Each structure stands twice: as structure tokens, then as C-alpha cells.
Amino acid sequence: MATNDFIPFATATGANVETQANWETDTGSGGALEGGFQSGLARSAQVNKAIRQGTVMASAAGQAIGTVTGQDALDNGDVDLLALRFQAAMGMSRMQVFTSSGTFTVPDGVTRVRVTVIGGGGAGGYNSTYASGGGGSGGRAIKTITGLVPGATVAVTVGAGGVSPGTAGSGGNGGVSSFGAYCSASGGTGGGGGTGAANAGGGPGVGSGGDLNDYGAYGTDGLQFGPGAPSTGCGGAGGGPGGGRGTSGFVTGVSANGYGGGGGGGGSGASGGAGKSGLVIVEY
After folding, report:
1. Any idea of the CA torsion for 77, 81, 83, 88, to the nearest 10 degrees?
2. Boundaries of each Glycine-rich domain copy (predicted)?
3. For 62-106, how does the pLDDT look when each residue is reduced to its tens digit (9 = 90+)?
4. Contact 92, 284 (CB under 8 A)
5. For the chain, which terminus, N or C, has the lower number of CB atoms within 10 Å?
6. Residue 117, strand partner residues
7. Are 126 and 270 in contact (CB under 8 A)?
């Protein structure tokens, strides 16, 4: 159990403390509320009121530190450490955003983080004759992690976006994003392509290990209006926010611009757009 050195003063029933009404109007404080006690003696009830107000708030802050973070609130003069622990107890106020793989180092005074992990988006497909499907978007996992040790490190992996196909075929799949072994999110699959007339949109990724695990969005199917003429097909849109737009005619599908979004499918005889890489956000 965490230690709280900040003990409240004069909190017992019937304690010799000035009433709030008198204190606020200076009747009980003898005019000392704003100017402080001057020469002469201050009544015990007046002094006790001032001490209690300060110590009760300090004790409440120390209790919050211990309850939320599990760390001690010590009366040792280390103001900076207390401030960090109090900030952590009050909730997430800072964040670190990873748009590429790296390492998260747990800051001083932090034992709890909230992580959002998004997988990479799949690329749109490439069909040699017909319109192709859009790529699916990456999944998402959100997790609150407790019991971290300041100074410890966690490996962060950001999944790559799916690569546009250079030849007729399905678009590349999006990569998996993860925060250590705590949680992960798979990437969306690439949109259908090749030489056949049926070109389905790519499937969504999904989160794993989170408190909340979400699926991404499907890419839409390629749409063909005629018997395969290059100008009569429309590629499917990429899945998810920021997914790429599908195109018609011999035009490459639009690449995704939102993290985890799927690339748009190419028009008849054109390649699909690339998927967008995933994202990892750490709040603390």
C-alpha cells in the first residue's frame, strides 16, 4: 500500500476550528484573512483553521497519488517528483505519437499509460482489364496499462501501409502495429485484382489484447459498367477515415492519407493506391 505522509490537521468532530462563515467574513479571523496575523496573539481557532485548510488539501492530493498511481506521497522536500506523481494521478495530460517504429521509455513518475494502436491500411488492387477493389483499413486497440516502472522501455511497432501492386494482382496487406506484448492491431488486406471480373474490396484489420478491440473498415468492391472496356470500370474506395478514392478509366487509385486507411482501387487496367501506415499513441 502506498504511503501518504501528508496527514490532515484538526479534522476530528468538535475540533477547535473557526467556523467557515466567520472565517470568510473576517469576523473570526480578526481581519487576518487577507493581511495575515499582525502583532499580538492569534486565537487558536483562527490558526487551526488556516492549518487545517492547507493540510486537508495536501492530504487529499497525497491520497489521490497513492490510490491512482500506487506510488508514495512523501514529505521529503522533492517538489518535482510530487508534481509528476500528482499530474499522473489527475489523468493523462501528455502524449507521445509514433508514426514509425521505435521505443517508448516510461517517464519519471509515470506508472500508467493509455495506448491506442492502429494497424496499417491495405493497398488497392490492380486488374489488367477490370476495375479493382479498394484496400481495407487497419484495426484498432485501446488499452490502459498499469504497473509500469519509470525508466523501463517498451518496443513500439508501427505497421507499414500496403504497397501498390506493380503487376496485375491484389494490393499489398497492411502491417501489424503493436505496443510491446500488451496489445496489437492487424493491418487491412489488399483489394482484389488480377485478371478476373470479380474484384472484392480488402478486409479490415482488428485489434487484439486491448480493453477495446475494433475492426477497421472494408474496402469497397471494384465496379464494372460494361464488358471490360478500360473506360467503364471504377475501382473501389479504400476503407477507413482517410481511405483513398477509387478511380475510373486507366487511372491509378488514390493512395490513403489517413493513418491506417486503405488505398483506392485502380480503374480498369490501372494499379491501386497505396495504403497508409498505422499509428501508435501513448498518453500519460
Report:
1. -150
2. 99-284
3. 888 888 778 899 989 888 888 878 877 877 678 999 999 999 999
4. yes
5. N
6. 141, 280
7. yes
Cell 495530460 appears where? 93
Beta-carbon neighbour count of residue 133 at 10 Å? 38
Q: Which three cell numbers stand for residue 197?
A: 471480373
How far is residue 271's CA from residue 284's CA, in Å, rounded to a whole number? 42
The answer to whether the beta carbons of residues 237 and 247 sit under 8 Å apart is no
Beta strands in 158-266 (DSSP E): 177-179, 183-185, 207-208, 212-214, 223-224, 233-234
Residue 34 clears pLDDT 90, i.e. is over it: no
User: Position 103: which residue type?
Assistant: T
Residues 223-256 pLDDT 10s: 876 654 554 466 667 777 788 887 877 788 999 9
Every domain of the chain and the residues it spans: 20-89, 92-284
| Number of residues written out for the chain | 284
Q: What is the pTM of this model?
A: 0.74
Residue 55 has φ and ψ, to the nearest 5°, of: -75, -35
If 0-12 CB within 10 Å is exposed, 13-18 middle and 19+ buried, where does residue 239 land?
buried
